[in-house]
């Protein structure tokens, strides 16, 4: 269930489904490439620094993959499983649903970037800035979603 607010998308409203566009597929590809980069960086750290991986590196990859899969699945859930921050009607449920699914895809990108930076942080000091940028990105994506949801 996607829970962004108090208003459910199922009270007598049509069940909206959304066929992803090329933009949505591009967002999914970007999240996949970042998650693949996380696993490549874990393999690189394993090869360069020896067999015992740092304590949280492998867990970062596993948790990142689970989060990636959950957010990817959430972006394909039907509108009856969504809760929106604004009151939905028959006129705006389509737009609200598209905004919610695109938010899931964008959060997936920023979360994958965060997991990539977490896997690199122990050995590369510049990865701290990448992690701060991903946290800032999550805040920007959420603010942008709520602004667009309330203005549509």
Descriptive report:
The protein is mainly α. The protein has one domain (2-151). The protein is built from four helices and three strands. Helix 1 (22-49) packs antiparallel against helix 2 (57-74), helix 1 runs parallel beside helix 3 (93-120) and helix 2 runs antiparallel to helix 3 (93-120). The longest helix is centred in the first third of the chain and has 28 residues, at 22-49. The protein is elongated.
Brief write-up:
With 152 residues, the chain is mainly alpha-helical. It has helices at 22-49, 57-74, 93-120, 127-151, and strands spanning 2-3, 7-8, 82-84.
Overall number of strands:
3
- Tally of helical segments: 4
Strand content: under 5%
| Helix vs. strand class | mainly alpha
| Overall shape | elongated
State the distance separating the first and last CA atoms.
Answer: 22 Å
Number of domains: 1
**Fraction in helix:** 55-70%
Major sheet: arrangement of strands:
1-3-2
Radius of gyration: 18 Å
Order of helices and strands: EEHHEHH
Uncertain runs: none
Main sheet summary:
3 strands, mixed
| Average pLDDT | 85
Which keywords apply here?
65% helix; mainly alpha
How would you summarize the topology of this molecule?
Blueprint: E1 2-3, E2 7-8, H1 22-49, H2 57-74, E3 82-84, H3 93-120, H4 127-151
Parallel strand pairs: 1-3
Antiparallel strand pairs: 2-3
Helix pairs in contact: 1-2, 1-3, 2-3, 3-4
